[in-house]
């Protein structure tokens, strides 16, 4: 009897191993090592709403021409977007006139008036300051951030959520950390910072106990489960990978997004996993954050999707199905 059980156990382990190897082979055969990004012609330009003229976006391969680019991914955000843009632009306008910046709103296949609302800001501030990238179909937050960043002009690039949950003036905290990581101030020496790789992540980790107190036991369990999966499969140097307030140098953005495949909620994890693998300096800075109604994250379903993506990120890089871009490029 014991012999039969042991035999079945051995066969079970062998079959499981064979299945895993088969899956790995299929993944390698069917997966492109680097992301393949398709864009419609209309998605490569922005509109001047005053003249009606279309202008081509620059690319990340071009030299920087402003100090800071702010990329705002937005899906059906006609209500939450205006307060965020008002706070963002008011803060940036308070800076010295020599500080050049732009805000790129990426309407991610929105079916409401997100793009029209954003273009009202273009009318007010001009196309040199506010530009709208309107995607034809919904790609996911990661896909929207990637395309916005690829069309940025900044020596440093911030991507910030459209809900305005993070106090925008906390950008100064991220900038101070970026200065330490790069050894230069991008406001006065953008050339020095643009060519160095570094990432600063806004963090809500200090608010964790407060969040636990206001959440159900089930949501708290899911939160801790997700944090464990992130630590186990991907990123171990940060406590909060999902805060939508991250500042990158132009080089870091170019290198990391050249490798990034995930276009949905788990894209932050892959971005930071790539940065860790390439030994790009990363810091985590506490920011002021307030939960805003209207979140697009469906607690159970979205976290299940992210859990699946975390495992696939680990597997695909581990078996060589996904490759990392050369940091020196």
From TrEMBL:
GO molecular function: dolichyl-phosphate beta-glucosyltransferase activity
Coiled-coil segments on the chain, per record: none
Domain Glycosyltransferase 2-like stretches: 69-174
InterPro entries for the chain: DPG_synthase, Glyco_trans_2-like, Nucleotide-diphossugar_trans
This protein's pathway: Protein modification; protein glycosylation
Gene Ontology BP, a term: protein N-linked glycosylation
Protein name per Swiss-Prot or TrEMBL: Dolichyl-phosphate beta-glucosyltransferase
Organism (species): Gryllus longicercus
Lineage: Eukaryota, Metazoa, Ecdysozoa, Arthropoda, Hexapoda
């Amino acid at each position: 009897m014991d012999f039969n059980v042991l035999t079945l156990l051995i066969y079970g382990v062998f079959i499981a191993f064979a299945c895993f190897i088969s899956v790995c082979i299929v993944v390698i055969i069917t997966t492109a090592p680097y992301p393949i990004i398709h864009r419609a012609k209309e998605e490569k330009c922005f509109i001047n709403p005053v003249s009606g003229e279309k202008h081509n976006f620059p690319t990340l391969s071009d030299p920087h021409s402003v100090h800071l680019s702010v990329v705002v991914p937005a899906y059906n955000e006609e209500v939450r977007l205006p307060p965020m843009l008002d706070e963002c632009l008011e803060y940036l306008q308070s800076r010295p006139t020599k500080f050049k910046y732009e805000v790129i709103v990426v309407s991610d296949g929105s079916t409401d008036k997100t793009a029209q609302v954003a273009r009202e800001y273009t009318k007010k501030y001009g196309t040199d300051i506010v530009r709208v990238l309107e995607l034809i179909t919904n790609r996911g937050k990661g896909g929207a951030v990637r395309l916005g960043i690829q069309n940025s002009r900044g020596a440093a690039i911030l991507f910030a959520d459209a809900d305005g949950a993070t106090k925008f003036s906390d950008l100064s905290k991220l900038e101070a950390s970026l200065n330490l990581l790069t050894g230069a101030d991008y406001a006065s020496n953008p050339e020095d910072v643009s060519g160095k790789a570094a990432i600063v992540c806004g963090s809500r980790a200090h608010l964790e106990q407060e969040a636990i107190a206001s959440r159900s036991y089930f949501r708290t369990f899911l939160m801790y489960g997700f944090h464990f999966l992130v630590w186990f499969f991907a990123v171990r140097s940060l406590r909060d990978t999902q805060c939508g307030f991250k500042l990158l140098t132009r080089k870091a953005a170019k290198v990391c997004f050249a490798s990034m495949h995930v276009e949905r909620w788990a894209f932050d994890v892959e971005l930071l996993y790539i940065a860790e693998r390439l030994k790009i300096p990363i810091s985590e800075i506490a920011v002021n954050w307030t939960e805003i109604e209207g979140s697009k994250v469906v607690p159970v379903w979205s976290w299940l999707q992210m859990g699946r993506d975390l495992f696939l990120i680990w597997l695909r890089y581990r078996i060589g199905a996904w490759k990392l871009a050369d940091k020196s490029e």
